């Protein structure tokens, strides 16, 4: 069965069927417990989780059952930025996410060929966050629209979410550098490192590095991302701490694992 992703601004209405089903699918995912690999929050954590921040924002509480440790280690915090994994990783992530939403949609009686609508903000007059994502209400006026996120802030920090077209272009497509430089120069296709994980030495050691002060020059670009990321940026800016974590895995995976995290105060 062919599934076609369509332009969210050209579906024939603010709450056209694919958007309405998207909302219903998201709501179903949100109702699942964190330990469920098809839960909204589990999927969020695959990309990245900041437990302190999630707790602060009410996404995580002490009563929440966490998945088993090896599940967490294998699946959470996997987002790849600052390397050529950036594109393939996110493409796979969206594909898997879409499949989970579709599954929920079908279970609710929706179309089996549902596909996630895309947002092409480069098209004229389409740089505004689509209305279904900007309204707290469902089309019937009920106020728990799951596509609406109150913490979205927008480029002017006033909740009006749009892409400032004078600040974005598609030149990245012609950039052969995937890893951005922190000291000026090309920001790279995948951007400056926002925390990456790479398996080294045959998977025995994985290196996790977050160079927080790079965020300072990246803030404007990050202004369109999730509230979590913004919070992370702000917190990071304030603390000015660089984390370099090393995860050692001795021997075969079932054997005992040892984790260490080193924390470095930044010079400036
Ligand atoms: Cu990412």
Question: Any overview of this molecule?
Answer:
The chain is of the alpha+beta class. It folds into 2 domains: 1-180, Di-copper center containing domain from catechol oxidase (di-copper center containing domain from catechol oxidase, Orthogonal Bundle); 192-268, no CATH class. It has 8 helices and 4 strands. Strands 1-2-3-4 form a 4-stranded antiparallel sheet. A hairpin with a 7-residue loop joins strand 3 and strand 4 (257-265). Bound molecules: copper (II) ion. The site of copper (II) ion has 4 residues, from loops.
Quick overview of this protein structure:
With 268 residues, the chain is α+β, with helices and mostly antiparallel strands. It has helices spanning 17-30, 40-47, 51-56, 69-75, 86-107, 131-134, 215-222, 227-239; strands spanning 196-200, 205-210, 241-249, 257-265. A 4-stranded antiparallel beta sheet has the order 1-2-3-4.
